[in-house]
Design goal:
- By secondary structure, the protein is mainly β.
- It has a single domain, classed as Tachylectin-2, Chain A (5 Propeller).
- The chain has one helix and 24 strands.
- The strands form five sheets. Strands 12, 13, 14, 15, 16, 17, 18, 19, 20 and 21 form a ten-stranded mixed sheet that branches. Strands 1-24-23-22 form a four-stranded antiparallel sheet, with no helix packed on it. Strands 2-3-4-5 form a four-stranded antiparallel sheet, with no helix packed on it.
- A hairpin with a 5-residue loop joins strand 13 (169-175) and strand 14.
- The N and C termini lie far apart (45 Å).
- InterPro entries: DUF4185.
- Residues 9-320 form the DUF4185 domain.
- This is DUF4185 domain-containing protein.
Length: 356
């Protein structure tokens, strides 16, 4: 993939009071605008200083995607991008110290939008997750009352991505916020996303995978940010593969597809700061990787974050574009992934035992 442009930072988002920010999960609002939800945001270029807020929302014209996303507005009454949720950083909420609230993914269902967030004390320490709703195209957000404890599903329901299928269900992959765990899969009827009891897992039991079982690791590894989106007759799953320091894209026939056999390609690779090549797809300290609405597998646009943790700049969001799959990459050699899946299945049979 090649870099299209910087989306945030000096010269790009100064008029919104945004110097440094990250993340940027995107969806299309009911009114047709693009909506991007960003994480920890500061007025200065970098991390820290005045104007700390998270999450914030920026709006964009969908016709600008091809040449580089242009922001047209933000949360807040004026041009300053205000925090979308009512809380104070480094405060005590429900008896727990909360440093920040970070977005994981946003989805549009009919005339409403839903935002899943992690309530954190520092990076990687999630107290609980919750869902917020917008009925005015992302301008304002209100708590739905839906929460899950941070250790839900063994801590694997923290970093989440969700997308709606044409069968009435929303499918969600999730993992921990430590960038050291694999993925689990759940689904929920689209009209019941705010009912924790309506969610059901995709799990291995009695020798087979089925809905209604406790979720089983569907893909082992060390993952961070995720983005699942239906594109045409396929589903794309974008993963920040922290264990291998890269962003990968998987092409699935369905979210329940065997993730060890699904076509998978690396679109961006991490690297050293003195060896960056944004045309050749090498990006230092990269993370994120959110699909821009309107993308196709042949013209895939991603929102990618970058943070130089030593110098504290860049700390920004960028737009990359390219083709997710070559003809060769859509037909991978299945032998090794199949062996991995078979080995996992054998291990599960041994661990779970009959009748469990």
């Amino acid at each position: 993939m090649r870099k299209v442009k910087d989306l945030t930072g000096p010269g790009h988002t100064d008029h919104f009071g945004i110097g440094g920010t990250d993340l940027g999960a995107m969806t299309t609002a009911p009114d047709g605008r693009l909506v991007a939800v960003l994480g920890d945001t500061f007025e200065r270029a970098g991390v820290g200083g005045p104007g700390w807020r998270s999450p914030i929302v920026l709006f964009a014209d969908p016709t600008t995607v091809g040449t580089g996303i242009e922001w047209t507005g933000s949360t807040g009454a004026g041009t300053y991008a205000e925090q979308a949720l009512p809380y104070h950083h480094d405060s005590v909420i429900h008896g727990r110290r909360v440093s920040t609230v970070l977005p994981t993914d946003v989805i549009t269902i009919g005339d409403e939008m839903y935002l899943h967030v992690m309530v954190c004390e520092g990076l990687g320490n999630v107290h609980w997750t919750e869902v917020h709703r917008s009925t005015d195209n992302g301008e304002t957000w209100h708590h739905t009352g839906t929460t899950w404890p941070g250790d839900h599903l063994g801590g694997l329901f923290q970093m989440l991505t969700w997308a709606r299928g044409d069968d009435g269900y929303v499918y969600a992959f999730s993992t921990g916020f430590q960038r050291s765990h694999g993925l689990v899969l759940q689904r929920v009827p689209a009209d019941r996303v705010t009912e924790p009891g309506a969610w059901e897992g995709w799990g291995f039991r009695d020798g087979e995978w089925a809905w209604g079982n406790p979720p089983t690791i569907a893909l082992a590894g060390a993952y961070g940010e995720l983005c699942l989106r239906p594109l045409g007759d396929r589903w794309l799953l974008v993963l920040f593969d922290a264990g291998n320091y890269r962003i990968d894209v998987m092409s699935l026939r369905h979210p329940t597809s065997n993730l060890y056999e699904a076509p998978r390609t690396t679109v961006l690779r991490g690297g050293a700061w003195d060896r960056e090549d944004h045309v050749g797809g090498h990006v230092a300290q990269l993370y994120g990787g959110y699909v821009v609405p309107g993308s196709t597998p042949d013209d895939l646009h991603l929102v990618v974050s970058q943070w130089n943790t030593q110098r504290n700049w860049p700390y920004r969001v960028m737009q990359f574009a390219g083709s997710a799959f070559t003809e060769a990459s859509t037909h991978p050699e299945p032998s090794e992934p199949k062996r991995l899946r078979d080995r996992l299945t054998d291990t599960l049979k041994s661990y779970i035992g009959p009748g469990r």
